[in-house]
Write a structure and sequence with these properties.
single chain, Creatine Amidinohydrolase, 2 domains, 6-stranded mixed beta sheet, 3-stranded antiparallel beta sheet, elongated
Length: about 375
Amino acid sequence: MPDMHARRRDRLRVAVAASDADAALITSLVNVRYLTGLASSDAALLLPADGPAVLATDFRYALTAQRECPDVELVTARMIDPALGQIAAGRGLRRLAFEAHDMTVERHQALAADGSLDLIPLGRAVEELRVTKDERELALLSRACAITGEVFDQVLPGIRAGMTERELATAIERAMAGAGADRPAFETIVASGPNGAIPHHAPGERAFERGDMITIDCGAQYRGYHADMTRTVVLGEPAGWQRDVHALVAAAQRAGIGAAVPGAAVAGVDAAARDVIAAAGQGERFSHGLGHGVGLEIHEAPMLGPAKPGKLSDRVPITVEPGVYLPGRGGVRIEDTLVVRSGAEFATARDLLTVTKTVTPGELVAL
C-alpha cells in the first residue's frame, strides 16, 4: 500500500518541519512499519522535511523491503543508525529529530560521536498520528477481534474441573493460530479462584475447582493489529457474591462505554465507570486505568485513567475494562474493544468490535 504509507509520511513531515528539524530519524520498529509497511526486527527510517525517505535495514529483510516498500530509497547496512546518519550529514540534513523514547543512550552517543549532526527530540509525533485509524486499519482490527471472539467461543465448552490455568491459556493460543491469527496479541491471562484478584496473573498450574470464577484476558494479532478482550465466568453455579460483583463490573463497563464519545475527556470516561464501582463501596478494589488505545501495539494512546490528559476523537479504538479484585476470593474484569465514532450512536453493533456468541459482557455464565 505505497500510497497509504506515503500519505502517512507526508503527515509526519508537517511535524518534522514544525520542530525546526531538517529530517527525522525513526527508530521505533512499530513506527517504521506504520510509515513504510516493513515489519522487521532491524530497521530505521530517515524522513527529510522535504525530500525522499530512506529506509535502512539489514540483509535479512532487504528483499522484503524491496517488495513491500517500493516508494522509498532502500539502504542495506549492518549498522543502520550510523548509515542513515552519514546519509543525513552528506545531504546537508544536519538538524536531525530523533525518537528519544526509543533510542538508547548508547545508540545516541554513537550517532552523535563525530559531531556532524545536531540531534533534537522529535517527541511522540508518530504515535500521535497513529491514534486515529483509517478504515483499513479498523477493518484489520475488527478481524483481530472477530478471531478473538471465535476462539473464546471455541474453547469455552472445554473448560472443566481439573484443567489448569496454563492448559487453558495454551489451548486459547493454539486455537488462535488455527483461526488465522498472526500470533497472540499478548501472553494470555487465565486467573482462577483467588488468583483472579491479581489483574495480570501469569497462568500457572492451579487446577480449576467447582465454584471458581475464572478470568480470561486474551487477544489475537492479525496483520499487526491487536485485539484485547476479557471475560469472567464461573465453573458451576455462581454464588450470590459472585453475581453481585459481576453485575457491578458490567454496570461500570456500560457507564464507561456510554461516556466514550467524540470530544469526551479520557479522564471523564474513566470517572464514569469508576464512580459506579466507588458508589458500591468497592472503589479501592479498582486500581488500574479504565482502558487504552489499541492498534499496532496492544497498549497505545490514548490511555484512559483518572489523571490522563486529552480527549477522544473520531475513529479511535479503545478498550473499556473495569474490574473489581477481592484478595483471597477472586476478581472480575470485563473488557471489550470499541471504536469511537462521530455521527452515530456509540456502542452500536458496528462500533463494538469484540463479539462472542457464547458470553455477552453483562452476562455471568456458569460452565
